[in-house]
Amino acid sequence: MELKKLLRTVLSVVMVATLILGSVSMLAGCQPTDTQNPDSDNNHALDYVGLEKEEYLQKLGENNLGDAIDSVGEVYGELLAGLGNSSAASQSGGAKVNMTITVGDTALDLFEQLIFGGEAPVDISFLKEISLDMDLGMDGQKQAIQMALGLKGQHIITANLLMNMADSVMHIGLPELNDQWLKIATGENVPNVITGGMSSTAMLAELADALPDAETLTKVLDRYLAIVLDGLKNVDQSTTTLSVGGVSQECTVLTLKLNEEDAMNIVKSVLTKAKDDTDLKKIIEDFAKAVEEMAGEDIGADEAYVDFKEGIEDLLAELEAETEFDTESFIQVDTYVDKNHNVIGMKMYGMSEQDSERGMMYFYSLTEGNKTAFEFAIPSDVDDTDDFKISGTGTKTGGKTSGTYTVSMQDMDMVTIKIADLNEEAGTITLAPNMDLFPGEVADMLGDLALEIKLSADGIALNILGDSEVLLGIALKAVDSNGPSLDAPSNAVDITDSSALERWTEQLVMDKVMDNLEKAGAYEFFEALFTAVESPKQEAVVQPNYGYTDDGWG
């Protein structure tokens, strides 16, 4: 029946999510890395003493996925604060951010060919380095941004933005052009791109106020994780040796088989708890009320939780009426655990015992001394190939990982990933596509194309490489600061005052910007660009009229 198909589908999704969460947690460092010290309690070693195999698997899930939930909660809390919920209303601080774009000689030559059809008539070397320095600050609902554009190390122009979300007012300052600021308030004459953006930000802040805080979210996720884990009963235990890329590791295998009846019992337990969960009740009611207030009309927010509860009760009644189950189909998950209770691999099998032993998905992450090996694959269900696979080997010394890994599809190499001295704060990752996949002419033009990612304690750099030379690079760095002034300027011109805005325009002075462009070697380029834009207009004005008039042909 359709219900069984639905449950099997839901079960597959849940197990896939569990597998991915487990691997992401391990790769992100949620799993302890002190595998060489069996006495280390970083991996909750004392939690596993004297446990039966079912309890052991449940405790592994609680610790590993519990750590992942904690990480999700932290990220969620930061995002919520960024949206401007009530807990962030009193936050203040600042940061200085620098973005530098570097253009290599090869890319500059290519730019000349594309724009000018050959050598540029003016010097464009100033494009080799473009920088944007930003100083950002906030205090409650006030935000300020100071931006400075530079070319080839020479400052060009500054732009200041001051936003006050409390009264939906923005101030814009261009100090090199005019000492007076511009004031932009919500109104009919204000561009929609500005007022719409400010309105959307305010709406997001209102919506964020209605969302649960990070502590509540984490508590709810932990609660339902515990219910799911409690339903994992059919577990076998064995030992084996895993080998990947010449790296081997002995481990315990916990084999879970979950059939349709087990899955249905877990779903019923979850729904039964959710039906009377006061935390869920508050989350649903608060969110529905916020949406209704933003919509400005009655959308039935008062009935949202009632509808939710009635829906659960109807589904529970349908599940309780189901008494016949598919006993032959199941999902099998093998969890591989090392002697220090670290999960070093998982493998999920298909829905029946006749499915391929290669499984539906698997990953292994092994350590032998300072050698490491990783493999993640989604095997094809029609042949012995892999729909997707990433595998490779490396070393881990002093907390830093290095290695080479290959991403392939249908057993065809797509990308090679090289990691050098990578830890949580710094390191280099290089991604190089298989150039054999490109047409010959394209491959020759691109050379040994690669994307290089450099991480450091204060920023990140992205470089597109060609034959090991930088074609195009973007570097971002950030440090804490006090931020620019958040005080509204007293000499602001309201842009809805057309006469005042006209006077502001007439008082614009371009001398400072032009001098800066000349110092950067960019003045001739912008002059030529301006001339090229204006020439068609001038030609249109002086173009003779060859049409017929009363005096004859022009």
Structure write-up:
The chain is α+β, with helices and mostly antiparallel strands. The chain is built from 12 helices and 22 strands. It has helices at residues 2-28, 53-83, 105-116, 192-210, 214-230, 260-275, 278-295, 304-321, 440-446, 498-506, 511-519, 523-542, and strands spanning 92-103, 129-139, 142-151, 154-164, 169-173, 181-185, 235-244, 247-259, 330-337, 343-348, 361-368, 371-379, 386-397, 400-409, 412-422, 427-433, 450-456, 459-466, 469-481, 492-494, 548-549, 552-553. A hairpin with a 4-residue loop joins strand 4 and strand 5 (169-173). Helix 6 runs antiparallel to helix 8 (304-321). The protein is globular, with a radius of gyration of 31 Å. Residues 1-41, 85-90 and 545-549 have low confidence and may be disordered.
> Percent helix among the residues?
25-40%
Whole-number mean pLDDT: 81
Task: Give unreliable regions as ranges.
Answer: 1-41, 85-90, 545-549
Helix tally? Answer: 12
The global form is globular
Reported for the largest beta sheet, the result is: 20 strands, mixed
The count of β-strands is 22
Rg (C-alpha, Å): 31 Å
Assembly context of the chains: single chain
- Range of strand content: 25-35%
**N-to-C terminal Cα separation, in Å?**
85 Å
Based on secondary structure, the structural category is: alpha+beta
